[in-house]
Structure formats: C-alpha cells, structure tokens
Amino acid sequence: MSIRQPLLGLQLCDLTEACPRTGFTCGEGMLDDWFKKKALKRHQRRQVRVTTAHLSGNAAPAGFSALGVCTHPIADLTDERDKVGWDAVMFPACYLHFVAVHRTLQGRGIGTELLLSAITATYEVSKHVGVHGLVLTSLNQNKVTFYQRLGFGIIGRESGSPTMLLPIDSIVELVEGETSTAETLIESPVSAAQRS
Ligand SMILES: CC(C)(COP(=O)(O)OP(=O)(O)OC[C@H]1O[C@@H](n2cnc3c(N)ncnc32)[C@H](O)[C@@H]1OP(=O)(O)O)[C@@H](O)C(=O)NCCC(=O)NCCS
Questions:
Q1: DSSP alpha helices (H): ranges in 57-167?
Q2: Which domains, from first to last, does the chain contain?
Q3: What is the pTM of this model?
C-alpha cells in the first residue's frame, strides 16, 4: 500500500543515460559535482541506486537521491533495546548517500518524496535481507530537522555532520500504516494543498 498521497505530477525514476544532469544545481557544490560526474557510473555498477525526480513533462531532473548500504557500530545506537540480538560489532543498514532538489524547486515537498522513496526501498530490502534501518549523514546541523520530521534520530557522537537513523521498526510502521499518526507525520503541505 502507498504510505501517503504522492505529489501530483512528480515522477520518480531510475537514473538513465538520457537524463540531462548538466544543468542541475541544488546549491551544494559537492552534491552537484557528484551528480554530474559520478552518479551514472556508480548507478550502472550498482554501487548505489540513483533515483531522479521529474515534474510532469520535464526531462530535466528536479531532484535526485542515491541509496546504498553500510555497516555502522552497534555501540552508537541510542536505544539499548536496539542493541539486543546483534552478534557483531557493526549493524547493517541501507545508507542514503545523497538527497538533493534543484535550487529553484526546493520547499515544494520534492525532497520529502525522495526521502520517502528511500524509506520504501529500505522496507523492500528488509523483506529479503536483514537491515536495521536507513542511515544517513546530515550535511550539517541545519538539515537535521528535515530528517527528524520523518522520524530519523541522531546516533553516535556529536558532530557537525550528524549520523542519523530511522530504525526498521519505524519504517515498517510507516509503510504498513500501522500507526494512525504516520500519514500526519509525513504529509507535506504541498500534498495537503493539492488534495483539497
Ligand atoms: C534538503 C533538501 C533535499 C530538502 O528538499 P526540499 O524539497 O526543499 O524539502 P521539502 O519541500 O520536502 O521540505 C520538507 C520539510 O523540510 C523542511 N526543510 C527543507 N529543507 C530544510 C533545510 N535545509 N533545513 C531545515 N528544514 C528544511 C521544510 O521546511 C519542510 O518542512 P515543513 O513541511 O514543516 O514546512 C533540499 O533543500 C536540498 O536539496 N538542499 C541542498 C542539498 C542538501 O543540503 N541536501 C541534503 C544533504 S544532508
């Protein structure tokens, strides 16, 4: 089942050679460079999976995300219950390398859509391979709230670029709709406006 109303007119696809990337700018040079120079090769080698977001009828990407896997120290988990059952030092997780939206299109819910797509992908992975959730590194402290509103929490030591985790239990609840608050939590204002 779908975990929310998708943004009208937004399509999410796998990155292809046909996707024009040269004009993309999100305002963070490192992310722009990676998207232009490395994304396609990494995607084709399946080192990461790159998803691009497109507004209807527009071949130019409005945003992109890059999803892979990682291992992370169990000692960094903040909830003691999460540490039970791992017979290892590290836990496995999906890892969101990047999420970025074109500078002129930010604030319309596109980043949230890309994040939800990574969460759904992690849910699908977890049906086949054991993972402890979705991990990412926030570029800086300012971006933390963007992730916290979907339930991500900071793990590990204090850092200018905090590591954040959405545990698999929360992902299952979000995707399977087991909590009545899930839709309120993840609904963007744009979606709400479009539905009314
Ligand atoms: C961060 C980013 C991906 C968010 O995408 P977006 O499409 O602008 O975000 P959304 O419209 O889905 O915003 C959803 C919510 O997050 C908040 N938010 C978005 N960007 C934020 C930021 N930089 N800091 C804090 N909150 C932010 C919005 O205010 C919104 O909250 P609201 O619904 O309560 O108003 C986008 O701004 C971006 O590409 N930034 C440059 C690249 C980058 O920093 N990527 C993240 C690396 S950690």
A1: 110-126, 144-148
A2: 10-195 (3.40.630.30)
A3: 0.88
